[in-house]
Design a protein that fits this description.
single chain; mainly alpha
């Protein structure tokens, strides 16, 4: 069984999620109505326009930084945890006790 390196998996997930978070933020800044319509389709008709800030206030740079930090941190923790579980379950299934390099 191939094992995953938890720290590398976490960093890769955080980088990938941060890239997509940035793309989503840019889409919302430049195409707010189109972005909301796009995500409305994902949420089975839930009207996300009700979540728009009063006056249609644009995303601030501070909000962006706070959001990308939180999204990166959460994706790092999830991917690191996933890789650890993946390796543990793989070792348990094969009976191997090999240490996974970090």
């Amino acid at each position: 069984m191939n094992s995953l390196r938890p720290w590398k998996s976490g960093i890769a997930a955080a980088a990938a999620f941060s890239l997509f978070y940035t793309a989503c933020a840019l889409a919302f800044v430049f195409f707010p109505d189109g972005t909301i319509r796009f995500f409305n389709a994902w949420f089975h008709g839930l009207d996300l326009t009700l979540l728009r800030p009063p006056g249609g206030r644009p995303l601030t740079f501070g909000q962006f930084l706070y959001g990308i930090f939180g999204a990166g941190l959460v994706s790092f923790v999830i991917a690191t945890t996933f890789a650890g579980f993946y390796n543990s379950f793989g070792r348990a299934a094969t009976g191997s006790r090999n240490h996974v390099p970090r």
